[in-house]
Backbone:
C-alpha cells in the first residue's frame, strides 16, 4: 500500500481507493457515493486501471437462449450484455427468438490472427527493398526474437509495405485464447530491434497504424484482424410475418436499400444496421476491450429471400476477443463469460462464435423493426 | 411488478431481477454473485435495459486535473474514465500533465447537429426529383411534423441524395443537451409520414444508413455528426524531453509516419493513435452510448514543431454526447458527469469540450511513448 | 516561331514540330512516321500541349442512336467514343439498342458546381476560427476578388474545414459551359490573397486536395463535383431475354452480388461495372480531361426487377465536362461534339445528359453479358 | 468486307469506314472532315474498335530526357505523352530537369500480378466453407483449367472471401508482358466452370468487383494490382530553389498539408497532386487502357527534407500496363513505345519503371509550383 496523499495516492488497496475518492469529492465538490458503492476487490483491479476511485455500474441482462451451431459453440446460450440503452436487449432477444424459429445460427470462424505493424524509417526505396530482403532471409531470427517474449504467441508471417522512406512490416500472430494485442506489441518490438540492428532501419513506432488497432481501416475489413467470423440463419416466412409483422420481401428490401445502397453512398466501411450496439454490450459485459468495437462495426449484414424464407448473414471481419487476459479476469466479467461457458483456456473461438450469433440476432431484429416501420415506436416506448 | 416466472419474468423490481438472476444461474449452472452485488436501484434502470440480472462493474478512475480553455469549459478538470485496460489512465494522465506544462488545451465546438436519413422508395429518377421538389415546397409542413414530436429538437435542414429508385433525405437537428438519436428518429418518422402522403414515395426505413449511426462512414468524417470539435495545445520542448524522454521532432515524426502515412496506406477513416480508447472509457463512465465510439474513432491527430515547441491538435468530427438523457441518469454515471460539472441542461457543449481535451491528452501521451520507444514496456509493466 | 534547335525547340509551327520530331527520332533511334502523319494544324494545339511532335491517333467510332430523355438533351443521339479496346463500342451499342427497346434513358442533372479548396496555415485552433469568421464577415470582398478574374464564373459558396494548423476552404463555383477547373484555380488564388491579407493566414497551396481533383475521394462521391447526374431506364423482360440471353432476375442478381456486395467488400468508392471505360472513350473523343475519369468512376449502378421489367439506374456524382474550353476546340474533338450537338455555349448540361445516357447503356450491356456468362467469350472474340 | 449499308455497316475496310462516316455525317448533319483525315490503316484497328468512322487526334509530345535508375530501365528517357491539357508537359518536363539535377529517379517494381475475382452464389455459410475447402483440395485442377486457356498466363494463387451466400474467389496471375485483363478473365471463367461442377456453387459473374478493375478500391491500394511500383529521388536544395523558386521546406510543407492532411480529410484513396494527369497522357500515347488510370490515381506521393535536400517518393499501387497486347499494336502507339524502348516481349517491367519515373517528375513539378504559389499563373499563361 502506498502512503496516502489524496489525489497523488497511487496505491491499489481499498483504503487507497477511498482516500483518492474522498480527495476527488473534495476537489470536485461532489458526492461519489454510488461510484464508491462497488463490491469488487480493488486489488483485483490493480492491473486494469490506475487512479481508481470506484466502479461504474452498467446494467447487465441477458438475451436468449439462442441456438448456436458453430464448430466450437453448439446449443442454446443465454448471452450477457451490459448497456444503458433501453430496448437493445429486448430487440436482440426478439432476434434470438426468431433465429430459434428457424435453423438457429450457423457460425464459422474463418480467420484467427492478431497483427502489429511497426513503421521504420529507411533511407529510401533502394534501402527499403534491402531491408525487406533481409527480413526474408532472416525470418527465423526475427521469429525467434518475437516468440522469445511470449509463451503462447506464434508468429504467422510478416508482410511488407514500403513507401518512400517509410517501411511498414505487418506482423501476424496466433495468440491462443488471448485477444493478444499486448502480446503482439511486445513481441513485435523485440523483433523490430533485431531488424534495426541487422539493417540500419530505424524503428519509429511499434505501431505504424497499418495494424490497424481501434481505427476503422479497410485493411482489416478486407483481410481481417482478430477473429474473422461468418454466420447465417434461415427463418420461415410465417415466423417472420407473425413476430416481426413484416414480410420477408420487406426485410430484404430494407436491408438492400439501407445496408447496401445507403452505406455505399455514405462512404461507409461495412454495411450493417447496428452491429456496434451488440458488440459494445457484449464487450462491456465480458471484459473485452470496448474500443475494439470500432473494427467490429465494419460488419457486412445481408438478407435474401431464399425459397420464400428469410435468409440473413453477417460477416464480422475483425472480432478481437479473448477468453483469457484483459478484463476477463475481473469478477463480474468472469461471471458473464461463465454464463456462456467461455472463460479461460481453449474458449476464444467458442466466444467468437457466440458473439457472432448474438450480432446476427440483433441485426435480424432491427432490420425487421425498420421494415415493419416501428423503430421509432420501439424507441419511444422503451426509451431507446 | 410482474409475476415471477424465472427467465420469462419481465419485471423491473429488485425481486424480479433476483428471480431472473437465479433462473439464469440455474440455466447456466453458474454463480452470478458478483453480478448481483450491485448497489443501484434496478427500478432506476428500467428504461435502460431489459432482462436485467445485475450490473457489470467497470473500474473507474480519473485523469487530471487537466487545464481546458474552451468556450464552455474553462479551468482544471478531474475527468472520470472507466476501463479494464491497465495503463490507459496512467497514460492519459501523463498527457494531462504535459498539456498543463504547456498552454492547457484550447477547444472549440465547430458543429452541433444530429442527423437521421430515412430511405424512401420512389418510382425512378423523375419521380425522385418531384419528391425532392415537393419537400422543398413543403418544408414548413415537414418541419412542423418533425418538431411536433419533440419539445427540444429543432429541424435544421434536409439534404437530398437520390439514386435510382432510392431517395435518401438526411435530416439535421439541433437536439439541445441530449445526444438526441431517439429524438431525431421519432421526429423524422413523423416527417416521413407527411412526405409519404404528399408524394407517393414509400418509406422503407427511417434509417437509410446515410445518417450514419454507429458505422464508420466518410460522410460523418467530412460533414460531422453530433458535436464536431477541434482542440490544440503547445508544449515547450523542455517539458516534452523531460517527461516523455523524446524530442519534439521524434514525436512529430512518429505522428507523421504513423497517423498520416500509415493510416492512409491502411485505407483508414481518420488518423490517430488510439482515440477510441479515451472515448470508450469516457463514454462508459458518463453514460454515453459506447457504440458511438465508432464515429469518434475517425479523429485526426496532428503534430508539428512550432518554434521548437510541440504543437498537437485533434479534430473529432463526430462526438455524439449529451448531458441529459440516455445513460446519464444512472447513479454512477450521473456522479461521473458531476465530477466535471457536466450533468443536466446547458452542459452538452461543455461536456464535448472536456472530452476533446481528454482525447488530446491521451493522444499526446501515446505518441510520445511510441516516439520514445517504450510502448511495449508500458504494456508489459502495467498490463496493457 | 522559335529558332530551331532540335529538342530544345519550343515553337508551335509545323516546322518546329517537324524539327523536334526529327530530333526525337535521332535521340531515340526510332521512326515516328505514324506520329507525324497527323492532319491537324499544330498551331491550333499551341495552348494544348508543349514539345509537340505529332499526334496519337485513337480509333473513333459511335454508338447509338440512343434515345435520351433529359431536360436538355432529347431525341436519338449518335455518340462518339474513342478507344483502342475492342468490344467496348459493340457492347455499349447493344446497351443502346436495349435501352431504346424500353423507355430510352431518362436523365436529370442534379448538381452543377466546380470546386477548389486551398489549404492555409493558421496559428492553431483559435486563429483558425477567427479566419473562418473573417471570411464569413467579408464574403463580399472574397467573392469580388474571385469573380474579378473571370467573366463567366460565379462563386456559389465557401465551406470551411479547420484541422489544427490547417484550414481548408472549399470554394464552389458555377462555371457556365466550361469544365472550369482553371477558372476556379485562378479565381480562388485571387480570393486567397485577400484572405491572407485580412487574416494573417498563409496560403500553402491553392489546391489542398479537398477539392478533390483527379483523385478518388469520398467528398466528391457524396457531395458531387462538376455535374452530378442521375439516369434510369426500364426495359421489358422480353427484350432483356431476347437480346441479352439473360433473365431480368439474373441481371438483378449480378448487379447485387457484384456492384453492391463485391464493391463494398473491396472498399470501393462507387459501385459499378465499368463506367470508367465509357467515360474514358467519351472524354478522349470529345476533348474532355481524361484524368477526370477518376471521379466519374465513383458511379453507382443499380438494377431492380420492377413489375417483371428490368429497371437500371446510374448516379454519376462527378462528371466534370464542358462544351467549351479545354480540348473541345481541337478539330477532331470539336467534330465529335458536333455529332451530339454539344459544342459551344449553352451545351454543357446537354453534354452531361448525353454522357450519362451512354454510361447507362454501357453498364446495362456489361451487366447483361456477365449475367449471361459470356463476358469472357466477348473478350475472346472481339479482342477485349 | 461487309456489304455497305450506312450506319449498319459492320465492316473494317477503309471503304466501310468511309461509308459509315458519311452515314453519320448525314444522320447528325455535320462534317467529320478532321475525324476522317487519319493516316492509320483501319484494318489494323479491327480488333480495337467497332463502328469506326475515323480517329481522334490527340496532340503528342515528350518530356525528358529523364534519368531513370531502375532494374529494367536505366539511362535517359525521352517519354511520350498525349494530352489536350496545356502546361502539363511543360510541368512534367520541369520535373524531369529537376530530377536530373539530383540523383535521377530510382525505381523498383515490388509487385506484378493481375487479378480477377468471380462471385459465386453458394447455399450459405457452411456450403461456402465446403467450396473453399474443395478449391484448396483441387487447386491443381483449377490451375490446369485456368492455364489451359493461355500460353503466357500463370495462376499465382486464389484468395477466398465468403460473405453469406456470396463467395468471392480472387485469382492472381502472372501475365508476362501483357496487361492481361482479358487473359485473366478467360482463364478465370474456365477455372470457375470447374469449380461450379465440383461444388454446386453457381457462377454469377466472372467479375465480382473484388478484382477490382477500373474502380477505385482499397483492396488494390493496399495489395496492389498489375505492377506495384515505388520510386524516389533526392534533389539538392540549390536546384530546388533556383528552378522551383521555392524552398525545400515549402515543398515539404505543401506535400504534408495537401497530400497527407487534405487527402485524409477528403476521404481519398491515395494521396498525391495529379498522378492521373501523367498516367492518362502516358496511357493514351502508348496504347494502354486509359480507364485504368483510375487505379493508378491511388498513388501516394511523399516529400521530406533529408539533410537539407528535397526527398520525394511515389508509391503507385496499381499500374496496369503492358508492352504487348491492347492498343500497343496500333501505329502511333507502337512508335511511342519505341521511343522508350518498351515495345514487345520482355519490356513490361521496364515500361512500368519509366512510367513511375515520369509520374514522380510530374508530382515534383506540381508540388513545387503550388509551394511557389504560381500554379494559377501557370494555368493562366499556358492555358491550363
Residues:
Amino acid at each position: 500500500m502506498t502512503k496516502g496523499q489524496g489525489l497523488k495516492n497511487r496505491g491499489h488497496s481499498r483504503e487507497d481507493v477511498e482516500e483518492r475518492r474522498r480527495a476527488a469529492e473534495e476537489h470536485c465538490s461532489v458526492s461519489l457515493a454510488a461510484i464508491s458503492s462497488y463490491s469488487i476487490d480493488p486489488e483485483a483491479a490493480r492491473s486494469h486501471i490506475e487512479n481508481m476511485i470506484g466502479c461504474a455500474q452498467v446494467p447487465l441482462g441477458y438475451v436468449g437462449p439462442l441456438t448456436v451451431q458453430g464448430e466450437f459453440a453448439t446449443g442454446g446460450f443465454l448471452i450477457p450484455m451490459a448497456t444503458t440503452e433501453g430496448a437493445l436487449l429486448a430487440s436482440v432477444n426478439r432476434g434470438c427468438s426468431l433465429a430459434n424459429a428457424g435453423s438457429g445460427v450457423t457460425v464459422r470462424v474463418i480467420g484467427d490472427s492478431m497483427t502489429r505493424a511497426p513503421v521504420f524509417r529507411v533511407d529510401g526505396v533502394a534501402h527499403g527493398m534491402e531491408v525487406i530482403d533481409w527480413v526474408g532471409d532472416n525470418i527465423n531470427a526475427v521469429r525467434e526474437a518475437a516468440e522469445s517474449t511470449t509463451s503462447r504467441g506464434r508468429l504467422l508471417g510478416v508482410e511488407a509495405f514500403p513507401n518512400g522512406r517509410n517501411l511498414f512490416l505487418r506482423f501476424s500472430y496466433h495468440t491462443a485464447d488471448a485477444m493478444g494485442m499486448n502480446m503482439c506489441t511486445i513481441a513485435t518490438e523485440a523483433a523490430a530491434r533485431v531488424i534495426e540492428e541487422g539493417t540500419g532501419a530505424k524503428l519509429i513506432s511499434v505501431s505504424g497504424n497499418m495494424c490497424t488497432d481501434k481505427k476503422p481501416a479497410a485493411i482489416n475489413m478486407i483481410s481481417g484482424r482478430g477473429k474473422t467470423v461468418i454466420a447465417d440463419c434461415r427463418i420461415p416466412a410465417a415466423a417472420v410475418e407473425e413476430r416481426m409483422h413484416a414480410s420477408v420481401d420487406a426485410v430484404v428490401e430494407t436491408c438492400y436499400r439501407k445496408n447496401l445502397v445507403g452505406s455505399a453512398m455514405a462512404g461507409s466501411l461495412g454495411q450493417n444496421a447496428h452491429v456496434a450496439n451488440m458488440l459494445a454490450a457484449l464487450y462491456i459485459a465480458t471484459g473485452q476491450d470496448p474500443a475494439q468495437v470500432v473494427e467490429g462495426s465494419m460488419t457486412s449484414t445481408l438478407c435474401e429471400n431464399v425459397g420464400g424464407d428469410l435468409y440473413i448473414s453477417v460477416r464480422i471481419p475483425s472480432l478481437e476477443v479473448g477468453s483469457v487476459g484483459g478484463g476477463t479476469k475481473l469478477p463480474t466479467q468472469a461471471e458473464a463469460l461463465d454464463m456462456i461457458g467461455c472463460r479461460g483456456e481453449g474458449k476464444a473461438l467458442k466466444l467468437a462464435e457466440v458473439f457472432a450469433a448474438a450480432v446476427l440476432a440483433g441485426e435480424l431484429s432491427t432490420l425487421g423493426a425498420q421494415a415493419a416501420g416501428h423503430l421509432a415506436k420501439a424507441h419511444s416506448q422503451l426509451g431507446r
